Amino acid sequence: MSETIVADQVRDDKLLKREAAAIWRDRCSQCHGPAGKLRGVKHQSIAPRQFGTFGMSMGFLFGGDKMRAGIYRRIRDGSIQNGRELMPAFGPELAREQIWALVYHIERF
């Protein structure tokens, strides 16, 4: 099944929306803050990227599908800079549907 089909199926799935909110609360908010706007408590030395600013602060040039795909890859693969893990890879722990649900959850910030 293509990623586009999976993403489209996830967008309106109410159960996955609730699950994404729980995943965000339990795994993401420690660094990104509960609403994706504030620095979390786990990594005070790392300023998490702000969401909701046309994709520019996330390091993606465009919004829409390109930005969604970039956020998906970042959640799946994590981020390492200069040998330092800035964000863990959640791909091994989360299903594709869960990652897409997180992407849409992030878009609501």
Walk me through the structure:
With 109 residues, the protein is mainly alpha-helical. It has a single domain (3-107), classed as Cytochrome c-like domain (Cytochrome Bc1 Complex, Chain D, domain 2). Helices cover 50% and strands 6% of the residues. The chain has helices at 3-11, 14-32, 64-77, 96-107, and strands at 79-81, 84-87. It has a two-stranded antiparallel ribbon. Helix 2 crosses helix 4 (96-107) and helix 3 (64-77) crosses helix 4 (96-107). The longest helix has 19 residues, at 14-32. The N and C termini lie far apart (28 Å). The model has no long low-confidence stretch (mean pLDDT 78).
Task: Please render the helix and strand layout as text.
Blueprint: H1 3-11, H2 14-32, H3 64-77, E1 79-81, E2 84-87, H4 96-107
Antiparallel strand pairs: 1-2
Briefly characterize the structure:
With 109 residues, this protein is mostly helical. It has helices at residues 3-11, 14-32, 64-77, 96-107, and strands spanning 79-81, 84-87.
CATH class: Mainly Alpha
Strand content: 5-15%
Most strands sheet: 2 strands, antiparallel
Q: Give the terminus-to-terminus CA distance.
A: 28 Å
Strand and helix order: HHHEEH
Give the mean pLDDT: 78
| Overall number of structural domains | 1
Number of helices: 4
CATH homologous superfamily (4th level) name: Cytochrome c-like domain
Q: What global shape is seen?
A: globular
Helix content: 40-55%
